[in-house]
Design a protein that fits this description.
about 110 residues; alpha+beta; D-amino Acid Aminotransferase, Chain A, domain 2; two-stranded antiparallel ribbon; 7 strands; about 30% strand; globular
Length: about 110
């Protein structure tokens, strides 16, 4: 979903992350909820040494990202394979983030 400025903002009830070149990119939460699952995913990524970039993301930039996932209370961490015409790999970053989150919420070491 786009915000009122036409920038990528979030999905319905979930925040969004994109991965490329060793960095996770996520929209700056200036007009949508900075969710607790979003904040948790950021901390888990930092523990893995992944750089977090919070910034404006325009829709056409989705063509340049390799992986994408949603975060939220219901979504937890859910990889995306496609948004409209843009396709993404469900790669190691997504899989590792899903595992780390699952370990955390189930009381296993992270």
């Amino acid at each position: 979903m786009l915000d009122y400025r036409g920038q990528v903002a979030e999905a319905t009830g979930a925040n969004i992350f994109f991965y490329k070149d060793g960095e996770l990119h996520t929209p700056t939460p200036d007009c949508f909820l900075d969710g607790i699952t979003r904040r948790t995913a950021i901390e888990l990524a930092k523990k893995r040494g992944i750089k977090i970039v919070e910034r404006v993301i325009m829709p056409e930039e989705m063509a340049d990202f390799d992986q994408a996932f949603l975060t939220g209370t219901a979504a937890e961490i859910t990889p995306l394979s496609q948004i409209g015409e843009y396709t993404f790999e469900v790669g190691d970053v997504c899989k590792n983030m899903m595992k780390d989150y699952d370990d955390l919420v189930n009381g296993r070491q992270v």
